[in-house]
Design brief:
GO terms for molecular function: amino acid transmembrane transporter activity. With 230 residues, the chain is mainly alpha-helical. The chain has ten helices and no strands.
Length: 230
């Protein structure tokens, strides 16, 4: 039976409600852009990855993955704290959130320039090793990752570029956080598995310089694209 006097039928009302429900979720375009950018950033070995490699070399077998778990927990902590702050900013002012996007783009470009400058003076890196039981190594990896102010600042600069202010914030945060943590854990686990063959290559002066150059250009490119889109 159709509705009388031109009133919409229950089918029309049901289908009209679908887009409104989907608008609260994160768009696929934003998510895939986040994934691709995260892959590049995570692939660049930093202090946390060097810690993972060192522990994998010193503690063979599954015990090395205590450090990997600590890295994942640390990223979860840092990213969650960062997203909580972003949510507060978005709730306060959309204009302030846009300004934060611009500041984040500038910060990404700054990090890229710093990486290129350090490439010229990169030296061989020492691979740190966490001693003690798995729980102790888990705790150290968590501390190194979660309580590093640079990690939180980076997440604050990085995450807003993939947040759509016109959509509900919490569902987007609920997608971005586990996506990044899973990818970070997988990345650290791969480095742990390949530690023997990668340790020398990644810690040499030449490798560090190349990594800094690639990472710097990537960050500058990401910051430029973000600024153009903001």
């Amino acid at each position: 039976m159709t509705a009388a006097h031109g009133a919409p039928s229950w089918r029309d009302a049901a289908f009209a409600a679908v887009p409104k429900q989907r608008e609260t979720l994160m768009s696929f375009e934003h998510w895939i852009a986040f994934v691709l950018t995260s892959v590049v950033i995570l692939a660049i070995p930093g202090p946390t990855i060097l810690l993972v490699i060192g522990d994998a070399l010193a503690h063979r077998g599954k015990s090395a993955f205590a450090t990997v778990a600590g890295v994942a927990a640390g990223d979860l902590t840092a990213f969650t704290l960062s997203m909580a702050g972003l949510g507060a900013v978005l709730a306060t002012s959309a204009t302030l959130f846009t300004a934060l996007k611009w500041a984040g783009a500038a910060y990404l470009i700054y990090l890229g320039v710093q990486a290129l400058r350090s490439a010229a003076r990169s030296g061989a890196s020492q691979v740190p090793v966490s001693e003690g039981r798995p729980l102790q190594r888990f705790g150290k990896a968590w501390l190194v990752t979660a309580l590093n102010p640079k990690s939180i600042v980076f997440f604050v600069a990085f995450a807003p570029q993939f947040i759509d202010a016109s959509r509900s914030f919490l569902p987007q945060a609920g997608i971005l956080i586990p996506t990044f943590v899973i990818m970070a854990a997988a990345n650290a686990a791969i480095y742990a598995l390949l530690a023997r063959s990668l340790a020398t290559r990644l810690t040499s002066a030449r490798a560090q310089a190349n990594v800094q150059r690639v990472g710097g250009l990537t960050l500058i490119g990401a910051g430029t694209l973000v600024a153009a889109r903001a």
